[in-house]
Specification:
Elements lengths: L7 H20 L4 E10 L2 E10 L2 E6 L2 E5 L1 H11 L5 E8 L2 E8 L3 E7 L6 H10 L12 H6 L14 H24 L2 E7 L5 H13 L3 E8 L2 H14 L4 E5 L13 E5 L5 H11 L4 E5 L5 H4 L8 H4 L2 H22 L2 E7 L10 E7 L5 H14 L9
Parallel strand pairs: 8-9, 8-11, 9-10, 11-12
Antiparallel strand pairs: 1-2, 1-5, 2-3, 3-4, 5-6, 6-7, 12-14, 13-14
Helix pairs in contact: 1-2, 5-6, 11-12
Length: 390
Amino acid sequence: METSNMNKKSADKIEFFMIGLKGRFDENRDFFDKITVSLKSGVKTFGIEAVDNDGMLSFTYIGNKYNLDFNGFTAFIKEIVLNYDEMVLAYFERGKTVYINADNKNVSTSMQQTTYVAPQEAHAAMEVMSKREYYVKPERAPKLLKTIGILGGNGKVKNDKIRKYNQIDHFVEIIHPLLEELASKNDEIRIIDCACGKSYLSFVLNYYIREVLQKKCYILGLDYNENVIEESRRMANELGYKNMQFVCTDIRAYTPDNSYQLLLSLHACDTATDKALRFALKHNIQSIVCVPCCHKEMNRAQYNLPGFENITKHGILRARIADSLTDGMRLMYLEAMGYDASIVEYISPLDTPKNLMIRAIKKGGINQDKMKEFESTCRVLGCELSISHD
């Protein structure tokens, strides 16, 4: 069948569609992966793969290397397509691929959500693990789950990581309604992870918000441990998650350079949880998700529980009561500061005894009556928690 090279009219339409792609590139550069161009002339096919090089597009064409801005790349494609019969341009970004298909008769564009189909054995492994519907599926997020150590080389969840995987997925399930609410109110969801550690949950949320909910997001991780910050940076680079930043700092000394809609604090030890909550209050962060770890402060303060001395004289019972009192006092203070606060059991206590999650959403200003109740309870217990002061 005889074919003919593309005409100027087709080249102009390609340019028009690529102007739209430039808008995506400028706005969503953190999510950009690459552009591939397949050019066909008769039975021969030529390929181009352009990648981001500090805002420029770097590629090789017929043995020559180029480094052009997006406008220059568009002009380059517009010129060379006149020498070919057909073109398929694919613009890849996290979660989506945009296609431009062109020949001398027609130019069209389409968009597809990026998917990944796992081997059949991975599906079978999921059936064995649980009958529940998972939010972060191995067949959809294999690179993510391999990078954070959940999946093995065979694409299956490692036996010793099944509990960890279930914990991560239950976490996403519980905060899914909050993420949807934030997505409906904001063009970009900005999250700050205090005492982030190796940031596994932040990586999972990054994937889930961007590639499942299809919303822009930015995540900042803070931790005073340089080793975990470097490891988080390494994993972000491996995953191509350019919309994440990690800073080695004491959260009390850090001043955010932008506003954030959600603060995470997961298994931050002892008063680090209270420091994270104080950070959220100080910087007017509207939503908080917190999973406390050890609760030593109230025990150290030798709290009083009038009328229950014969119970609290037993060390184990005293420590367990202190755990509940500490989280209860945190909830009281958040409510006094205008948050709608609640606490839920987000995983089985068989997985970890530290299985409570505090959720809080800003609803108003300071409630003086609730603040008086909090202060009165502090006096009765004979202690003051770190959440109430810097």
